[in-house]
What we know:
This protein has helices at residues 2-23, 47-55, 58-61, 64-67, 80-85, and strands spanning 98-103, 106-114, 121-127, 141-147, 151-159, 167-173. By secondary structure, it is of the alpha+beta class. It starts with a helix and ends with a strand.
Amino acid sequence: YPLRRQRQMCKETAAGDIASLAKQSVATFSGLSASANVALSASAASPWEDWRSANFNSTELADPLISGPAADKDHDGIVNLLEYATATNPGLRNTVSASAEKNGANLEFTYTRNKAATDLQYLVEWSDNLDPVSWSSSGVTETIIGDDGSLQSIRATIPAANAGKRFVRLRVTK
């Protein structure tokens, strides 16, 4: 009992001393002065890095052939950057939710956009012959047709081709 009481008294004294010292200014300590130069820096992860961390384990994150933007972990033909852009799971074989149909004198291309992917640029382009230099975004207009808070459904309207065929693609860049 006496030992326990002594420990309790030490704790009370230490707590009291700390509380008392915390209330005193630096000048109280016999003219000693103190200064604090603290530099804090923090960097937030990018939305891309947040997505990668949520979808890959630490071993996969260390391997760009699994978790890099051009990788395709689940071998479904959709690279990770496009999985991120359209909010699909890179660990499950799936398809990108997109469709195209003719509507009068226009072609309507509908796709899903991940609202959290604020570090991406989305561009709908068309070509009449698939030549790499022939892709254009001329005349394309986009409208948000749905928004559930995390995903948007986008309808891109493209002038229909005079020759009867037109190819459409979604180009995503970081």
